[in-house]
Structures are given as structure tokens and as C-alpha cells.
Specification:
By secondary structure, the protein is an alpha/beta fold. Helices cover about 35% and strands about 15% of the residues. α3 packs across α5. InterPro entries: DUF6371.
């Protein structure tokens, strides 16, 4: 069994816990939540977990991030993964890139979804985990203006990782790539201990 657009559509839902919390706090409206879920084609499992589909620039679902795991891992464990399916990931939200807007990249898919409504002047993508952010994931972004917003930490290790990543990317692709340093400059020590991302910072600042 391989993922397909019909499978994506079959799992679609309209309410998600992480968005409902923000609606309750007055951060976004119900209409914005529905719009974001529609754009990113969010799904939900029978147990209520959000399905973040990795859909590439050719509208092909490559995999899905569900909780702390991946659809491909679950199918493999249940021996439903076909031997000829070579699992390859893309940036979450890649199917939304059309060259008309600058691109922002964050770690969390949920953060990308939220930011898409708070700052719609950008297309927001997510890489999920650092180890998946291999260089060829940037290939579809050739010619784009891209800003990566690293999660902060007490030692700046994540920020330094992305500074190095940007230097490597410049050798491969024609991408105007910068690493945002907002959190390193303005996050408190307590926030750095929590390893917050840019969404956490925006929401903390609004309270």
C-alpha cells in the first residue's frame, strides 16, 4: 500500500486540537483554522492524531508524519509496505510553493500551519527533524528567497547547525537563504531552556 491523493482525501478532517487551542485563545479564527487545514491537506487518524502529509511539488504524497512516527514506519511494521516503495521525504507544505511568495522554513509542521495564517505573506514549510533535512530537499526551491527559523536552545547548537547548513546549500543551489537569529537575540534564558520555536516566541510575546 502506497500513499496517494485519494488516501490523503479520505483522511481529511476539519478540527485539530492544536488549532482549537489557538481559536479558544483568540489567536486565530475558526475560518483561518479551516483555511490552513485545507491548504495543507491535514488529516486525522481514527484515534484523533493529526496527519501531516509530505506532498511534493508534483502533488505526490511521499509519506506522512503522525505523532512521533511516520506512516512508512507503521506500514513496514505491519508488513503493508511494498518492497519497491523507496521512502523519500520532502519539506512539509512543498505543494504550496508557486514562486509568488518568499518562503519560511520551521521545524514543526504545526508551527508552519499556524504561521501560514499569522503571516500569510510567506509560504511556510517544515522539515520535521534535522536529520531529514538533506541537501536535495532544497532542490525544488531553486531561485527562491528562503529564511530558516531554527528552534533555539541554551547552547545555540541548533542555530550553528543551520549556519553551516546554509553555507553548504549555497554551493549547490541558487537560493537566497538566510538563517533568522530572532530567537538567539531576543529569547530569554527560560525560553532557551524550553527550546522554543518562533511560534512559541510570537505567542509568548502576545500574552
Amino acid at each position: 500500500m502506497l500513499p496517494s491523493l485519494p488516501m490523503v482525501e479520505a483522511c481529511r478532517a476539519s478540527e485539530f486540537d492544536f488549532l482549537q487551542v489557538l481559536i479558544g485563545q483568540g489567536v486565530i479564527t475558526t475560518e483561518q483554522a479551516l483555511h490552513a487545514a485545507e491548504c495543507y491537506r491535514l488529516g486525522k487518524t481514527k484515534t484523533g492524531r493529526t496527519i501531516f502529509w509530505m506532498i511534493d511539488d508534483m502533488m505526490t504524497p511521499l509519506d506522512a508524519h503522525i505523532g512521533d512516527g511516520w506512516l512508512s514506519q507503521m506500514l513496514k511494521a505491519r508488513e503493508e509496505l511494498l518492497a519497491y516503495w523507496t521512502v523519500k521525504h520532502c519539506l512539509f507544505g512543498l505543494h504550496l510553493v508557486d514562486g509568488s511568495k518568499p518562503i519560511g522554513i520551521v521545524e514543526s509542521e504545526a508551527s508552519a500551519v499556524i504561521l501560514s495564517e499569522l503571516y500569510p505573506e510567506c509560504v511556510w514549510l517544515a522539515y520535521a527533524v534535522n536529520s531529514h533535512l538533506v541537501m536535495d530537499m532544497l532542490a525544488p526551491l531553486q531561485g527562491s528567497t528562503v529564511t530558516i527559523y531554527p528552534r533555539t536552545d541554551p547552547t545555540m547548537s541548533n542555530y550553528v547547525f543551520f549556519l553551516d547548513y546554509a553555507k553548504q546549500a549555497e554551493q549547490y543551489y541558487d537560493i537566497r537563504l538566510r538563517i533568522d537569529n530572532t530567537l538567539e537575540l531576543h529569547a530569554t534564558e527560560e525560553q532557551k531552556q524550553r527550546c522554543i520555536d518562533i511560534v512559541d516566541f510570537v505567542l509568548d510575546s502576545a500574552r
